[in-house]
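Predict the 3D structure for this chain.
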Amino acid sequence: MIAVSTLFYTFVIKKMTLNAMKRGIYLPCLVFAMIFATVDVVMAQARIARTEFLCYDKREDAKRDVRTQIDKYIAVCPELQFETDEGGVRAVYEQTINVPASWNDYNAYLHLESVGDDFTVFINGKQITRPIDKYTPSEMFISPYLEQGENTLAIVVVAEPYMATIAEDIVAKQRAQFSNCYIFAQRKLGIYDVNIRMVPDSLDRFAQLRLDVEVDNSFSTDEVIEVGYDIYAPDGKLMEYSVNDLAMEGFSRDTMRFTPWIYHSNPNRWSPSNPKLYDLMLYIKRSGIVWEYMPFKVGFAEYGHNEAGEITAFGKALTLKKSVYDAAVDRATTEKEVKALKAKGINCLCPTHPQPQWFYDVCDKVGMYVIDCAAISSPTRADDRTMSGTPANAPWLLEDYLMRVEAMYRRAQNHVCIIAFKLANDPSGNGYNLYKAYELLKSFGDSRAVIYEGADGEWNSDL
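Done. Predicted structure below.
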């Protein structure tokens, strides 16, 4: 575990106590005294990597992303409590979260992005994550740390030198702090993750929907879950629907697979010149009553790569005109800029780190290929292949590398605009951590290329 020094924790406690006394607030001092008193214990790791989605109570709200009608949704915008320029802690933000008794049958997740700096998370005085980079939107499973009634959520901004080294020259856009941060509670018997593809059949006659739904039973008892979906063509025509039951043991996960044929689909093959999208709605039912809706946009495409080192779509090499581009400060500005780039003949964007979810939505909608990239960029000493000479060859950083790469992949996996995944910005050295990152991405069985120019002819790049 990488942690700020005990000496500085003592400083923080004293300084926070003085500030709290001035404001007449004593509880935060007790909370942070407990946090910082146990520096060397192994912390929990609540952070997870999965598709970014919300569960809506009504179908129409799901289609229009109306969050005010989600029963168990809490916007997160903590208030600044403390700042300092000394040691490894830079600032502390807090928010009180009220957890009602009705959440007993739900799993709670925390989504954070646009924090502005690297950070870690505390709930009720317990540190639940290692430091998290500021560039990758993150999700955490927080139910084990919540109590019924009032809970204190603390976002602690940190300055860890090793994190700055991993992403030393990435420059993030300064969006509104804590924009699109939230907590939402999902049924304990529900959908945990989704993998969606629309690919051609073996004779290129039509598409096959390959829908893998990972379902979770967090109850101790055996349960039966009903998972349903419907999919509509770009012209609004219902193409297919189904509802299946699955009996699950207590505390288990399983995958339901749907593989229907989607006919008359070839005119809807997705490309920058033909960015047509299908509407897929997932939902779960219990005793015939729909509990939760999850909407997705799906494109018909199949990507890969050939021996000539070219990215392919439907088996044919793509001619790519690339531009390095990170999303603007908001969706509207980003869509305007992406359309302007497309008008100039650009057909592929290469962000320097994972982007807000709406960036990929915009590229799906407008018609723009994307080569996504993990938040890794360490050009200093990139050529030093000694142990820890470059961060890419420092095994003690392996967990950070793998989390950044997997989080990048899981968040973007269902977007049709994504044609390849990039391990790191160039140059960022090469070594053990990027070898393992490549193996991790290949283990997911995705046909899209995993690329890294910094591999310099080594095996951990498909192109």
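The helical segments are 6-23, 27-37, 59-64, 161-166, 331-343, 357-366, 398-412, 432-443.
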